[in-house]
Each structure stands twice: as structure tokens, then as C-alpha cells.
Amino acid sequence: MVGAHAYAKAGMQSPWTTGFTRDRFILSQLVGRDFKNKYRRSVLGVAWSVLNPLLMMIVMAAVFSNFMRVGGDIPNFPLYLIIGNVTFTLLSDSSSAGMASIIDNASLLKKVKINRIVFPLEKVLFALVNFAFSLIAVAIVMIWFQIPLSWNVFFVPLFLLYLVGFCAGLSMALSALSVFFRDVMHLWSVVLVAWTYLTPIFYSITILPEFMQRLIVFNPMYQYITYLREILLYQQTPSLEQNLVCVACSAIVFAVGWLIFKSSERKFILYI
Asked: Using CA atoms, how far apart are residues 156 and 248, in angstroms rounded to an integer?
């Protein structure tokens, strides 16, 4: 990384002037690095971030509609499906990459004094960048089914704020726990599979028994996916109750994740 003296010679303000400015600079560099690494030697490059959710939607819609007879009673099932899929993918990608972020950067942490929390947060931001490209795929499906955007689309940034806060909390907690308990990395993949099937991504909550319908409302990802479907699929304004539930999930998980990370980060150097 470029030192502060180099910026001074060039007459520029050093990115190390304040802790916040320094961390923001490091975050941008890390996101740029991950972006270049992901699309290196790829013919289609960024287009894969659009094509992947579209292709997954086509395959899953064909399987669940024609073979498993799921989704037939859901209007615009492909759009219903892709919204759920790209939203859950943001959680899955950010938490899995964030969980390994401290361990993967062990050599850097041993050599340079750096705010450790930037590593799990960077993985969430990178997943958010990929999610932004996935929204292009969602827009294509909306155009195909002739579903216009309503003014409710202005709730999307609020939705992203809720979901990113939730994912950041998970990533911070998992990244800290995995340093001390490596089994967490193996266990989390199983948790994600179970969480996927317990979230109405490709099915409607109405097909579940009544007791499961009452339980599934406590699933934060059900709340976030429903929030985005309300905006884009059903063209409705999310209720005050929905907003309160989403912000509560985000705030609680973020606070817990931050506390776990901050209370244990001083010991990382002993275990990485």
C-alpha cells in the first residue's frame, strides 16, 4: 500500500489522515482486488453476474414448475424465484467469504497494523456489488413479464441497508468464531443449506402446515425476501411492521456480531 509520505510529496491528502479515511481507502482497495480476481481470465467478465442468476432462475423454474409441481399457483413465478435467489445469495456469499476473511489475511495481519474489522466488512461490500449486477437480471425478468416499476422502488436502498447490516453482523461474528473454532467453517455450509430450504425461495409459505407458517416468520431471510418481493413483484409499499421487523433483525445481529468481533480481535494473532 502507498505510504502517507508518498501522498505528501504529490501534494495529495493522505488516505491515512484519519482512521475512518484509512479504513475506507483499504476497503476500496480490497473490493477492487476481489473484483479483478473474480473476473480475471473470464471472457464474459461482469456479464456472468447477470447471466448466472438468469440461468439459475430458468433451471429452477423449469424443475420446480414442471417436475415438482411447485410454484404453479404463484403469479410470475420466475420473478418470485429470482428475487428470492439473488437475495439469499447475498447472504450466502457475504457470510461464507466473511467467515474466512481473517484467516485468509493472516499473513497481512501479522505484518501490518490494520483495523481487522475491514476484512469481514469488505466481503459484505463485495457481495453487495455482485448483488447490484444481479438486480440487472431481475430488471430483465420484470421487462419480460411486463411488470413496471412503481414509486415503491425507492424502498430498495432501505432494503439494502437492512440486509447489509444483517449480513455484516453475521460476517463479523463468523469471522471471529472461525479463528478459534475452525469447525465453524464446515458447519456453516450445512447451516446455509438448511436455511435455504427453510426460506420460501422457490415455494410459497401457504403450502406449509400452519404451525410452520407461524415459525417461519421468525426467519430473518423470509422477512427480507418478502420485503423485496412486496416492492418489485407485488408493487406494494412495505408496511411499518415489516420495516420495524427488518430493522430490528439488522440492528440486533449487527450489534451482536460487532461485540463478538471486538471482544476477541486482540487474540486473533495468537490463533491465525
From this structure: 17
Q: What is the tens place of the pLDDT at every residue in 125-166?
A: 999 999 999 999 999 999 998 998 889 999 999 999 999 999
Contact between residue 231 and residue 156 where contact means Cβ atoms under 8 Å apart:
yes
Q: How many CB atoms lie within 10 A of CB 68?
A: 11
Contact, 170 vs 253, CB < 8 A?
A: yes
Give the C-alpha separation, 105 to 109, whole Å: 6
Q: Which amino acid is at 187?
A: L
Write out the three cell numbers for 72. 404453479
Cβ burial of 126 (10 Å; 0-12, 13-18, 19+) is buried
Instruction: State the first-to-last Cα distance of the chain, in angstroms, to the nearest integer.
Output: 22
Contact 184, 103 (CB under 8 A): no
What backbone torsions phi and psi does residue 77 show, to the nearest 5 degrees? -55, -40
Angle subtended at Cα 148 by Cα 93 and Cα 163, rounded to the nearest 5 degrees:
25
Positive or negative, the CA dihedral 201, 204, 206, 209 is: negative
pTM of the predicted structure, to 2 decimals? 0.86
SS3 123: helix
Buried-exposed string 138-150: b where 16+ CB fall within 10 A, e elsewhere: beebbeeeebeee
